[in-house]
Amino acid sequence: MSCPLCEAGGSAGPLKEYRSHSILYELFHCRSCGLMFWTPPQFPEEGFYDALDFGVYQLAHGLGNRGLGGHQVSFKRHYNAKKGKLLDIGCSDGAFLVWAQDQGFDVYGIDIDTEGVERARKITDNVWPMRLDQFVCYARRRDFRFDVITMFDVLEHQPQPRQFLSDALTLLSSDGWITGTVPNRERLFKTGRTPREFCGDFPPHHFLWFDEGALKKAVGFLGLVDVRVQDQMHGYWIEETLHQLGKPFKRRFTGSATSDPLPLERLQEAGIELRQRTVRFLYGLRGLKNILKLLPKAFEAAIEITFRKGGSLYFQARSPAQPPTADRAGEGPGKHVGKFVKPAAEGSRPGNWESKLS
Ligand SMILES: [Zn+2]
């Protein structure tokens, strides 16, 4: 069985079988790059994704709350290269685009979820309900190039990852960055690992299971430089904690309670007078509830830090800056990257990220 990413033959397996929509999928492990992949790389029928209930999907991915998802917090923490045109592949309702726009990025997005794209239109007109391959044709006609392309929890869905990554790279400007996340198959808390629990980590949703090494190689094959892959959840919960704890205080001091008002505020709106002491007590209770809600997260994070097995893997890599040459000029955007190259030997991989980005 040949690997859909490095194309090496002789993968080990099948390690597991899983039947969905009358297709029998089998899991293989590439001995060359370490990727685990499900085969056949096939969706049950045309329009499979159109028929999905994306409300459920968004819930599973923690989207739809207009805040940054945990997987996007890594980008906030680690990516501080130049601003510019940003394309978010799988932008959903645009929660990340809102944040990116606030940071000064010129934001663009695509998603196959038409409903999500409709909502994202409120943020920018530059969002399209398209697959990446469709968007590549569209973008070529308009000579779009992007300084950063993000794909949060998108790559693992791709049955043809080589084509997908190559397509993405054709849209990248010279010296542009590509970043994203995938679930970590070595994660300590393997929720969703059995189909009975939640089928989201299985085909036809997820075709690829990465660990740190496999993801590093996948990104490295593309000839990108400054490759960094790290498992995630170390520390992003701290930001989430502060965010949660800050909410009641923010409401109290700024008077902003436009969304999700506390029952307390609804009582006040209804004209029910409360004594100051009661108000303080109720706010305190709310704060305590938030702390209690975060304890399991803190516990999980502490264990993850100890064992270094976070829930997701974050990656980012830069396209090598190359001066455009005459014969390249006619080839279209970013033609010099996007070709798969043989993986570099372990010691020769460029990794001077710390000095450049942090
Ligand atoms: Zn492989």
Describe this structure in words.
- It is a single chain.
- It is built from twelve helices and eleven strands.
- It has 358 residues and is α/β, with parallel strands linked by helices.
- The strands form two sheets. Strands 6-5-4-7-8-11-10 form a seven-stranded mixed sheet, sandwiched between helices.
- Helix 4 (114-120) links the parallel strand 5 (106-110) and strand 6 (127-128).
- Helix 8 runs antiparallel to helix 10 (276-307).
- The two termini are 41 Å apart.
- Zinc ion binds at residues 3, 5-6, 8, 30, 32-33, 35.
Portion in beta strands: 15-25%
Summarize model confidence as the mean pLDDT.
75
Distance between the termini: 41 Å
Oligomer: single chain
Q: How many beta strands in the DSSP annotation?
A: 11
* Cross-sheet strand order for the largest sheet: 6-5-4-7-8-11-10
Architecture per CATH nomenclature, i.e. the level-2 architecture of the largest domain: 3-Layer(aba) Sandwich
**Biggest sheet record:** 7 strands, mixed
Rg from alpha-carbon coordinates: 22 Å
Total helical elements: 12
Structural class based on helices, strands and sheet pairing:
alpha/beta
At the fold tier of CATH, the topology name of the largest domain is: Rossmann fold
Query: Can you identify the CATH class of the largest domain?
Result: Alpha Beta
Give the full name of the CATH homologous superfamily of the largest domain.
Vaccinia Virus protein VP39
Shape assignment? globular
Bound molecules: zinc ion
